[in-house]
Amino acid sequence: MDQRTDQAAIGETGSIIDLGLPAAGGAFDEHHPPDAALIGDCVHCGFCLPTCPTYVLWGEEMDSPRGRIYLMKEGLEGEAMSDEMVSHWDACLGCMSCVTACPSGVQYDTLIEQTRAQVERRHERSASDRALRSLIFSIFPHPRRLRLLRGPLRAMQRTGLDRAVRRTGLLERMAPQLAAMESLAPRLGKPERLPERVPATGQRRAVVGMLTGCVQGAFFPGVNAATARVLQAEGCDVVVPRGQGCCGALSVHNGREAEAQRYARGIVDTFEAAGVDRVVVNAAGCGSTMKDYARLLADDPAYADRAKALAEKVKDVSEVLDELGPVAVRHPLEMTVAYHDACHLAHAQGVRAQPRRLLDAIPGLELREIAEAELCCGSAGIYNILKPEPARELGDRKAANIVATGAQVLVTANPGCLMQVTSAIERSGHPMGMAHTVEVLDASLRGLPADSLVRPPVATA
C-alpha cells in the first residue's frame, strides 16, 4: 500500500477518503469537518442499531449512526449539503448510546458535533426553525432569564391555568414545539439560594467548586441545595462562585460552536479563580461538555492549556462521593427506586456504577433496573422541543418501562431527564415520585421519611 493509502480510510463502498481537506463543492468547509479517519473507523457492523433511538423507532438506515456516518463520508467526498441530509443529522438525539455499543470504538460523539457545527454555518434553515432556535437560545443558556420565568410559571401552576391551556389542545395544534416546552415545565417550589461557601462538616477532605447550571439552578434549585448539603456532610468545603454562567452544553450539542466557546471561557475563568480541587457537576449534559473543554478550546492559544487543566478537575457529583467514600451516617429509606441512566452520564461520561453504589448503600432502599436502559428517554437537551413527536414516543416508551418496575420513585441525574420522564409518567396515568440521585442521598443523611420522596411532585405555594 502506498503512502497516500496509508494516510486514508476506506469506507463501506471501498472508496478512499483523503484525510486532507474536504472535496471542493461538498457539504463541509475546511474548519473542522467531520474527521475522515474517525469515519473510516466505522466498519458498518450494525451493533449500534438496536441502541439507536431513531433507528428503533423508524428502522431507517440513514437514521442510524452508521447511516449518518455514511452521509458524512459523502459530504467529505463532494456531495452538497441538502435538506434531506441535514434532516437525518438533526433527527439524531446525540445520546451516544452507539458509542457504548460500538466494538470498533467509533467516536460518533466527536463526528456528530463536528457535523452539526458545519450545518449551523453552512445550511439555511427555514424561517420558523430559525425563530424557534433563536427563542430557545435566547432563554435557556441564561440563568437570570430563566429565573425571571419562575414567577409567571408558578402563577400559572398555582391557578391551574397551565392545565386549562393543556386541556384545550389549542397550543399543541398551533405550535407543537411551544406546547412541548410548556408541558415540560416542572412543578416549581420556593427557590433555595446557596451561600458562596458552604463549610465542611467535621474534618475537611476536599475543596470543591459547584456548577449551579442554567435549568438546574432555575427549575431544580432543590437539587443544588441537596448537592451542597451532601458534599458538606461528606467533608467537603463547597464553593459556589457568584455570577457563573452557562457551561455551553446546549450550544455545543447543537453546533453553535462560537457561542459554546464563549460560554466555556467564562466557566474556565470562574472556576480557575475559585481555587478548588475539583469542579462538581450534578447535570449530566453539563458534565460531559465540561470534561471535553480541552477539545472545544483547542484552537484558542489563550485558553487551550487552561481548559485542559479545568476539564481534568470536572467530576459528576456521584464520582466525587464514590471516590471519597462515606463518612456521614445513612439513615434507612424503606422504598423501591428505579434508576434511569442519563445518556450523557452513562454513555458520554461512562458513569454507571457510581450512582448505583451510592443508592445501594442506603439501608432499606431497593434498587430496580429498567428494561431498555440504553434507550434515550427523548429529552436530549432541546430535542424534545425541536422534535416533540419522536421525543414523546420515546418518553412514553421509557415511562412504560419505568412503571413496569413497580418502583415508587424514579431516580436520575439530569434535569432534562427529570422533566421529560415526569411528563411521560403523568401521561401514563401512574404517577410516582421523581428525584435526583443526590436528593435521595440527602434524605437519607438527614433522616427524612421515605414519603418525602415517594409522593409525586406538586406545586408549592
Automatic annotation (TrEMBL):
Residues 32-62, 83-106 form the 4Fe-4S ferredoxin-type domain. PROSITE patterns: 4FE4S_FER_1 (PS00198), 4FE4S_FER_2 (PS51379). Its cofactor is [4Fe-4S] cluster. It catalyses: (R)-lactate + A = pyruvate + AH2; glycolate + A = glyoxylate + AH2. The keyword Transport applies. Its EC number is 1.1.99.14. Keywords: 4Fe-4S, Electron transport, Iron, Iron-sulfur, Metal-binding, Repeat, Transport. It comes from the Bacteria. It is an enzyme of class 1 (oxidoreductase). InterPro entries: 4Fe4S_Fe-S-bd (IPR017896), 4Fe4S_Fe_S_CS (IPR017900), Cys_rich_dom (IPR004017), Glc_ox_4Fe-4S (IPR012257), Helical_ferredxn (IPR009051). Binds 2 [4Fe-4S] clusters. Component of a complex that catalyzes the oxidation of glycolate to glyoxylate. This is Glycolate oxidase iron-sulfur subunit. It comes from Nocardioides koreensis.
